[in-house]
Amino acid sequence: MFTKFNYYWRLFATGLCFTLFGLGGIAIGFLLFPLIHLFSSNRVRAQRRCQYVVHRSFKLFVWTMKIAGVLTYKIEGVEFLEDDSSGIVVANHPSLIDVVFIVACIPNALCIVKKAAWSNPFMMGVMWATGYVSNDIPERMLEECIDRVQGDEKLVIFPEGTRTVPGRPMKLMRGAASIIVRSRTPFIPITITNNPTTLTKAEKWYQIPSKRMHLRMDVRAAIDPGPYIIEGESLSLASRRMNKMLREILVEGVERHERAH
Questions:
Q1: What is the CATH number assigned to the segment(s) 2-260?
Q2: Is the pLDDT of residue 137 over 90?
Q3: CA–CA distance, 191 with 90 (Å, rounded to integer)
């Protein structure tokens, strides 16, 4: 009886959390963020303030999910994300809420967002106000990301481009590697695992597991790409080698989590 009650409570709490997330996105995007832009001295400062609001909001959302009994979590190495320095953050992408946990740890996160999010009424205000980057035109996206990681933002990238399909090998697109090689900016690897899996690319939000999900996120110290870039080498070859390195780091991290479990 208790097991059944717990399941239906988590189903209700999951739906409630998603509802709060959507309503919060509308309230922040269309009420608070316009005021921040109105009373900020310039657009860049306004975007940084809005990014910080998203950071605090996601932190609150993570706390809400935990208190509601939707999930538990453990984060190692969060200190590598909490300063205001610029850089690149790369992570595997097993579930829908990965970005929530990452941005909850980063006060100056710059995210790459799918084109569809810019027309989503729950998200479009947030996209505009924070200055997040659209992926609709890949080359323009790369140039903007390379330019902005030279400033004071941490660019968050999922090299897979979309959520991992359970049971399939991790496949990385070359965008993240190209940005790292061309900008020569240190990158922070993050490995995320969910047990049991939920909110994957193959599951709807209401297809919750029989027990609470436990999310584990391991953050490593920043890696300088300089020693791995050969002078005079073509961008294509350098990006391919960097992409292979990223995959090895992320896959090794996932496998280490699975062995520990």
A1: 3.40.1130
A2: no
A3: 9
